[in-house]
Design goal:
Oligomer: single chain
Shape: elongated
Order of helices and strands: HHHHHHHHH
Organism: Actinosynnema mirum (strain ATCC 29888 / DSM 43827 / JCM 3225 / NBRC 14064 / NCIMB 13271 / NRRL B-12336 / IMRU 3971 / 101)
CATH topology of the largest domain: Tetracycline Repressor, domain 2
Keywords: DNA-binding, Transcription, Transcription regulation
Number of strands: 0
CATH architecture of the largest domain: Orthogonal Bundle
Helix content: over 70%
Structural class: mainly alpha
Mean pLDDT: 91
CATH class of the largest domain: Mainly Alpha
Protein name: Transcriptional regulator, TetR family
Pfam family, one: TetR_N
InterPro entries: Homeodomain-like_sf, HTH-type_TetR-like_transc_reg, HTH_TetR, Tet_transcr_reg_TetR-rel_C_sf
Distance between the termini: 52 Å
């Protein structure tokens, strides 16, 4: 088995352990046991906790809206296309909310540990860059442009999506979350031309 395959399996195992037992329970021994690998495999694949946490956060970034990109139509009003995109985001989020919760907790932990402190800033930059790419794709497929800077709009989108997700973890009310995203779509559409 290649090191790349082992890394993927260890990352998946770490996420399973964290979802089931919490971040503190994700020791190298527990992760290797979950992956059905000898303990030494962990240190063969990862040099540090930071490297594992970066791999986990990268996995979260790569499983976002990419896999569920909706059908966008230039024949529809901007608000309908924005709603479609936000609905696809929410559907992807709802597919595994516990993984999203673990990744959020991981970012919070990283803010407190000196060796991991650069991870939250890195993750935020990556999310904003991904949001810019999604905004570019949405504008291209829907046939509109934005009346504000895309990087600033991406910051707003990331903040709103994080906020709605955080609120949902508190109240677990899917209708309220969707209503919030729907209202944001209306406001978002005013920034298109």
């Amino acid at each position: 088995m290649s090191a790349a395959v082992r890394r993927e399996q260890l990352v998946a195992a770490a996420l399973r352990v964290m979802k089931r037992d919490g971040i503190a329970a994700a020791t190298t021994r527990a992760i290797c046991a979950e992956a059905d690998m000898p303990h030494g495999a962990f240190h063969y694949c990862f040099r540090s906790k930071q490297e594992l946490h970066t791999a986990l956060l990268t996995t979260g970034l790569n499983t976002s809206l990419d896999a569920a990109w909706p059908s966008i139509s230039p024949d529809l009003p901007a608000v309908d296309n924005v709603r479609t995109m936000l609905d696809a985001f929410w559907t992807a989020f709802q597919a595994d909310p516990e993984a999203e919760l673990v990744l959020g907790e991981l970012v919070t932990l990283a803010r407190q540990e000196p060796e991991l402190r650069e991870l939250p800033a890195w993750q935020h930059r990556e999310y904003v860059a991904k949001a810019v790419a999604h905004l570019d794709r949405l504008a291209e497929e829907a046939g509109f442009d934005y009346s504000v800077d895309r990087a600033l709009l991406a910051e707003l989108v990331v903040s709103v999506l994080d906020g709605v997700a955080s609120s949902w973890f508190s109240h677990r009310d899917g209708e309220l979350a969707r209503a919030s995203l729907d209202q944001f779509a209306v406001m978002f559409a005013t920034l298109t031309r």
